[in-house]
Amino acid sequence: MHKYAAGAVFAAGGSERFPNAPAIAALGARAAGAGLVRLWAPEPSRLSAAVLVPEATFAAGAGGEDFSRADAVVAGMGLDTRAKETVAQILSSTARRVVFDADALGALAAAECGGLSSGGDGFREAIVTPHSGEAARMLGCGAKDVDADRDGAAEALRLKFGATVVLKGRRTIVLSRDGADRFVCGAGNPFMAAGGSGDLLAGAIAARFARLARAGTVQSQTRAAFLAAASAVWLHAAAADSLVAQDMPCEPCAANLAARMASIRIILERSPE
């Protein structure tokens, strides 16, 4: 297998205030098996990328990117005031598989973007990854309302935005765009509640989506989106549990968590079945 066969992930994010976020997403993408990671991010993000994921490449300029070359795009991490413009560019591009996270979710809510996924030859399959607060803004309700009925909130997000939903939190819910598949993650621990954890997961979801696209083993893009999201959610949570369960526990910060995710993935991939 060569790097392109393992899937190419493009990560769009970062700003003056949050320069490290896209690099953390790129780290998650590499940990989850992406063969190539490309960052569409501002200049300040280059330093953190050089430290966290030096093998990542950068888009040539800030004027735009050819997302058609990506097997999956992940967008939103640290975009800040760039969110509206970036989301609009992605939605008007030929990007086929898109994971919307963080600030991109606010932009989608503000623009009232429904029907994020589409079929046919020019298909686009989308995944949204809100926590309770982001889900509340997307649905126009309170975070307490989301937490009071997480299944109902996930269903409402699926119907409103036409996307596979990853509703993060205690027992993260993954719901497929068509409502046919549902996964509730029983793994994970409170130590995961730290900055950067969501960015790492978003990148991992995009990587799993890209690898499934390249493998061609799942014919339905909707099914592939669900499997990508569910497998990445489990990998992320299982890695965190593994870190804190050691005799000498290790903090599941982004770098440690990514390293353990990669270890678990490699063990599973080298297993016969």
Q: How would you explain this protein's 3D organization?
A:
It is a single chain. The chain is of the alpha/beta class. Helix content is 45%, strand content 12%. α1 (21-31) crosses α8 (197-215), α3 (83-91) packs across α4 (103-111) and α4 (103-111) runs parallel beside α5.
Question: Gist?
Answer:
This protein is of the alpha/beta class and 273 residues long.
Structural class by sheet pairing and helices: alpha/beta
Tally of alpha and pi helices: 10
In CATH terms, the superfamily is Ribokinase
Architecture, CATH level 2?
3-Layer(aba) Sandwich
- Sketch the topology as an H/E string, one letter per element: EHEHEEHEHEHHHEEEHHH
Compute the CA-based radius of gyration: 17 Å
CATH-defined fold name: UDP-N-acetylmuramoyl-L-alanine:D-glutamate ligase
Any descriptors?
10 helices; 273 residues; UDP-N-acetylmuramoyl-L-alanine:D-glutamate ligase; single chain; globular; alpha/beta
Write the layout of secondary structure elements.
Elements: E1 8-12, H1 21-31, E2 36-40, H2 45-52, E3 57-58, E4 72-75, H3 83-91, E5 97-100, H4 103-111, E6 125-128, H5 132-139, H6 143-148, H7 150-161, E7 164-167, E8 173-175, E9 182-184, H8 197-215, H9 221-244, H10 254-270
